[in-house]
């Protein structure tokens, strides 16, 4: 069985928790895009784990984890993540594999990311991890992959890249990098990580032919996708399910299931249009109750009601039939809960997401109002035990999206989850 899990909104939907649950049945868990801009949280009895580059399956014993070729890897961040997990008793060796085709993030990528944010004309509110500049080099064919780190021409290619980037840095008044220091540091990283390197397409296709269960862990979310997100306020990779094929070296026909993860409301970190963003009072309340602070950068997340228009965009792009709804518990105590079903723009009504972020920034949400519920729902484990108004809310979402909600998350812990009967068939 091959299953892709993707985020349906602007990231941070709770993918980490859902992947952790689904990875119980998986043999291999694979990241296929993004990098350490991601922060996937898993709360276990032994503590809270936030994974940035290593697939969330690493927390379950005996599962293999692969960082696919579509991921951009900051080796320093990866080594830190490995060491921190090892310190907490998680075995990494013989369980982690990294594609030899992964592009590498260098210090000049991180600095360029930061300088563009601070001094450029367009502030995206990136995570400043160097993700965009690294993907840009990949597409420009000047990128350096793991396989290149181990080759003779690495020295020359790095020297050229640093020379070129130092020219760009002049325009920002930054002094630039010395080649020797970066070269030596990256040679050390290369040796440290050599034991994990593989051809991920070969490993995965063999596992597929052996009928292994493979779980693909999407990072970010559909609205941050480079092609179908709110461009230019997006990340630099294909966060859609479609990204898994090129990002892991498997064919579209090898994918059997795609599961979407959405929060019971909407959040966004960084800049960019967000119709229906709460005003101060509700924003503060949701940030407090939902602990809406970024798992990677600690920035506060902007919040709003559930937006069925963007969720439908995600259903279409990923052909979703099954979804998981997270953080339903955060809505407890609201007298009424709203769902955005369309946007008003000037005198027009939009049912589909406009491609132009300037237009989106001027859209006003059109809401449906649903009665809320008071009860703390975190202890509930059976769908039928949810308050009637909570079930009505979920059923309205199912109807608006044309999907089945098979998993409902009511707390950050593994057990704080409701599985519909139909979940057994996933
Ligand atoms: P990801 O990037 O999609 O994996 O999501 P993050 O880990 O960045 O953010 C989700 C946050 O919500 C984390 O702090 C989770 O521990 C937490 N979380 C996940 N599911 C639930 C839930 O159902 N209820 C509550 N209250 N918190 C949740
Ligand atoms: P997970 O996997 C939420 C956002 C940044 C910024 C934009 C571009 O945890 O859901 P980048 O550093 O990628 O160039 O930043 O994308 N962003 C995320 N927002 N969750 C994420 O990952 C994100 N990864 C990037 O805040 O707006
Ligand atoms: Mg996150």
Name some characteristics of this structure.
Adenylosuccinate Synthetase, Chain A, domain 3, 13 helices, binds magnesium ion, Adenylosuccinate Synthetase, Chain A, domain 1, 4-stranded mixed beta sheet, binds 6-O-phosphoryl inosine monophosphate, binds guanosine-5'-diphosphate, Adenylosuccinate Synthetase, subunit A, domain 2, 3 domains, 10-stranded mixed beta sheet, alpha/beta, globular, 426 residues, single chain
Written description of the protein model:
With 426 residues, this protein is an alpha/beta fold. The protein has three domains: 2-99 and 197-258, Adenylosuccinate Synthetase, subunit A, domain 1 (Adenylosuccinate Synthetase, Chain A, domain 1, 3-Layer(aba) Sandwich), CATH 3.40.440.10; 103-193, Adenylosuccinate Synthetase, subunit A, domain 2 (Orthogonal Bundle); 262-419, Alpha-Beta Complex (Adenylosuccinate Synthetase, Chain A, domain 3). It is 32% helix and 21% strand. It has 13 helices and 20 strands. Strands 9-7-5-2-10-1-11-15-19-20 form a ten-stranded mixed sheet, with helices on both faces. Strands 14, 16, 17 and 18 form a four-stranded mixed sheet that branches. The protein has a two-stranded antiparallel ribbon with strand order 3-4. It is globular. The relative contact order is 0.15. The model has no long low-confidence stretch (mean pLDDT 97). Guanosine-5'-diphosphate (GDP) binds next to helix 1 and strand 3.
């Amino acid at each position: 069985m091959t299953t892709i899990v993707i985020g349906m909104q602007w990231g941070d939907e709770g993918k980490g928790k859902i992947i952790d649950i689904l990875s119980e049945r998986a043999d291999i868990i694979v990241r296929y895009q993004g990098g350490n801009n991601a922060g996937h949280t898993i709360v276990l009895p032994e503590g809270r784990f936030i994974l940035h580059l290593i697939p969330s399956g690493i927390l379950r014993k005996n599962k293999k984890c692969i960082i696919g070729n579509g991921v951009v890897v900051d080796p320093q961040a990866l080594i830190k993540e490995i060491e921190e997990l090892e310190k907490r008793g998680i075995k990494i060796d013989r369980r982690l594999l990294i594609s030899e085709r992964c592009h590498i993030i260098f210090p000049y990528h991180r600095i360029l990311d930061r300088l563009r944010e601070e001094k450029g004309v367009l502030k995206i509110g990136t995570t400043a991890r160097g993700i965009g500049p690294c993907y840009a080099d990949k597409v420009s064919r000047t990128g350096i992959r793991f396989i290149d780190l181990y080759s003779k021409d690495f020295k020359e290619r790095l020297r050229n890249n640093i020379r070129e980037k130092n020219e760009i840095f002049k325009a920002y008044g930054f002094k630039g990098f010395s080649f020797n220091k970066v070269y030596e540091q990256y040679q050390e990283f290369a040796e440290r990580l050599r034991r994990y390197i593989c051809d991920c397409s070969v490993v995965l296709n063999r596992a597929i032919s052996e009928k292994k269960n493979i779980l693909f862990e999407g990072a970010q979310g559909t609205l941050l996708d480079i092609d179908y997100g709110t461009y230019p306020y997006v990340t630099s990779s294909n966060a859609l399910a479609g990204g898994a094929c090129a990002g892991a070296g498997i064919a579209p026909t090898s994918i059997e299931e795609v599961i979407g993860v959405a929060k019971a409301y909407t959040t966004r970190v960084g800049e960019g249009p967000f119709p229906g963003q709460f005003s101060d009072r509700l924003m503060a309340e949701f940030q407090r109750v939902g602990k809406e602070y970024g798992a990677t950068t600690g920035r506060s997340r902007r919040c709003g009601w559930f937006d069925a228009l963007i969720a439908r965009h995600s259903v279409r792009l990923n052909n979703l039939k099954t979804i998981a709804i997270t953080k339903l518990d955060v809505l407890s105590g609201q007298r009424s809960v709203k769902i955005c079903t369309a946007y008003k723009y000037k005198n027009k009504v939009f049912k589909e997401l406009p491609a132009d972020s300037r237009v989106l920034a001027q859209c006003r949400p059109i809401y449906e109002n649903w009665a809320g519920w008071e009860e703390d729902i975190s202890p509930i484990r059976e769908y039928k035990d949810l308050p009637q108004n909570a079930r009505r809310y979920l059923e309205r979402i199912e109807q608006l999206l044309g999907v089945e909600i098979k998993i409902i998350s009511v707390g950050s812990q593994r057990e704080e989850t409701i599985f519909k009967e139909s979940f057994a068939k996933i």
